[in-house]
């Protein structure tokens, strides 16, 4: 039996696949999918006003410690895609699940997840809990969905 994850926040970003992201067969090169996850994550962080600049000002870096991707169907040159993002953990780390879909058909192209941890910039130590400033920001976001 699979346990359903709680989603604390959602965000969606749309992009068109440019020529420089595809291979000679006009299919997006597999390594470029990570860039679209990053762009969607940055758009979400902008929306909640907790960008990487703010993280640094608060005294933390947030490295990716785990990345998973599953390619379902290829994205192609000029295809319009939507990256749906779901925050599924935010207290001990920042874990985000992603689904990349075709904007026109909503057909799933790729799924993935990233896990980031807070690291104190002064000591270099990984934090076992995310900083209070991060938790407060997410919990005050208009789209936050607490676990009831």
Architecture overview:
The chain is of the alpha+beta class. It has a single domain, classed as Thiol Ester Dehydrase, Chain A. Helix content is 21%, strand content 32%. It is built from three helices and seven strands; from the N terminus they run βααββββββα. A five-stranded antiparallel beta sheet has the order 1-4-5-6-3, with helices on one face. It has a two-stranded antiparallel sheet with strand order 2-7. A hairpin with a 4-residue loop joins β4 and β5. It is globular, with a radius of gyration of 16 Å. The two termini are 21 Å apart. Keywords: Hydrolase. It comes from Actinobacillus indolicus. GO terms for molecular function: fatty acyl-CoA hydrolase activity. This is Acyl-CoA thioesterase. Belongs to the 4-hydroxybenzoyl-CoA thioesterase family.
Entry summary:
One of its GO terms (molecular function) is fatty acyl-CoA hydrolase activity. By secondary structure, the protein is an alpha+beta fold. Helix content is 21%, strand content 32%.
């Amino acid at each position: 039996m699979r346990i359903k994850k709680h989603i604390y926040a959602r965000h969606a970003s749309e992009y068109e696949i440019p020529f420089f992201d595809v291979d000679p067969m006009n299919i997006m090169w597999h390594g470029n999918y990570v860039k679209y996850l990053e762009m969607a994550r940055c758009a979400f962080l902008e929306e909640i006003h907790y960008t990487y600049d703010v993280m640094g000002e608060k005294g933390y870096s947030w490295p990716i410690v785990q990345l998973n991707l599953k390619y379902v169907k290829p994205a192609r040159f000029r295809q319009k895609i939507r990256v749906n993002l779901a925050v599924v953990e935010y207290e001990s780390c920042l874990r985000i699940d992603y689904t990349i879909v075709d904007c026109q058909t909503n057909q799933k192209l790729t799924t993935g997840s990233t896990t980031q941890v807070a690291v104190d910039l002064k000591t270099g130590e990984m934090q076992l809990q995310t900083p209070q400033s991060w938790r407060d920001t997410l919990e005050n976001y208009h789209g936050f969905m607490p676990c009831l």
